[in-house]
Structures are given as structure tokens and as C-alpha cells.
Fold:
Amino acid sequence: MRLYIRRLEEEKIRKIKNWTLIYGRRKTGKSTLVKKNLQMDYYVLITDSNSAITADDKVIKIDDAIKEVKETLHKGGVWASSNFHEIVSNSQPLGFTRVTGKPVTPPPL
Structure:
């Protein structure tokens, strides 16, 4: 039996309308919070710089995940990722995106 404890942040997650970074300590349920509460067209868990796991638990190459994210964005879709930093550090960076799917220019560091 799996137990899911509702969190105060759930309503905030449901109302997300733009690019949002959710961060916190390890193993605190951030990915589950997003998967259960955000309406999205594509979800991917980046496992390392070479592979990813889709919402239906398929292991795919990182290049295929990036291609799918770009297609989702091109259609105006919403995507979410766990371990987003792995995509950004990959040789084919996506850049910053908004959750609505519209690419935005990252601010200068």
C-alpha cells in the first residue's frame, strides 16, 4: 500500500502559469508533488547526462528526451522535469523555458 500525504503546496502547484523552479532538500517529494498536481503534456526524469525516464517509466536517451521537450514546446505544450540541471549541462542545452511552453531568454549571470 502506498501512502500519499497531501501537502499545503499542492494548490500553488496547480495554479502555476509560467516558468517555475521548484527546489529543496533531497528526498522531500518535489517530483511527486509536481507529477500529481501539475497539468503537463510531457514529464521526464533526467537520470544522468545520457539517459532519462519518461512518465510511463520508459528509459530513453537524453537526446530523445530533449527532442520530445522541444516538440512539446513547439506545440505550445507544458513540460516538467526532475533534475533539470542535467539537461542544461548537456551538450545540447534547452535554455530556460516557461512552463507554458514559450521559450524565454535567460537573464545574464
